[in-house]
Amino acid sequence: MKINTAQIIENGILINGKISLPDSNTGHIRNSYNEWLLQGNKPEPLKKNDPWPSIRADRDSKIKAVQFEYERYNRELRLNITPTRDSNWMLALDAYVQDLANIPQVYEQNPDAIKWPTLPEN
Fold it and tell me: How far is CA 90 from the centre of its chain?
């Protein structure tokens, strides 16, 4: 993984504006980061009054909160069990998660205008 930027944030290090350490448990990301540091690079300091670390944390927690839906759905399909959620609901969930993932790009210039997507109804 090529690291272009690293920034100190409230709960770790934000790499390339997307991946945070220590939250990431992916070893190759940590190894890439350590190599990047050994090359003399330094993470940017925590920016005071920067709303993005907490916005990303909120976004990430909303995405993590629905991961079990994907796991259950795929497990039920593998076991030939009628899924708890139908495929239309799962497509709506995919759109919800993608809308969450797009928040930093969509609202980059105006984080105060964020309109959080809503979870699909049951």
Answer: 19
**What is the identity of the amino acid at 45?**
P
Beta partners for 12? 9
CA distance 70 to 75: 8
Nearest-angstrom CA–CA distance, 73 and 69: 6
For residue range 43-102, what is the model confidence (pLDDT) as tens digits?
777 667 888 888 999 999 999 999 999 999 999 999 999 999 999 999 999 999 999 999
Q: Which of 39, 41, 38, 43 is nearest to 17 (CA)?
A: 43
pLDDT band with cut points at 50, 70 and 90 for residue 38: confident
CB-based burial label for 4 (10 Å; 0-12, 13-18, 19+): exposed
For residue 89, tell me if it sits in a domain. yes
Query: Count of domains in the chain?
Result: 2
Decide: helix, strand or coil at residue 109.
coil
The verdict on residue 24 lying in a domain is: yes
pLDDT band at 2 (very low <50, low <70, confident <90, very high): confident
Query: Which range marks the domain in which residue 32 is found?
Result: 6-38
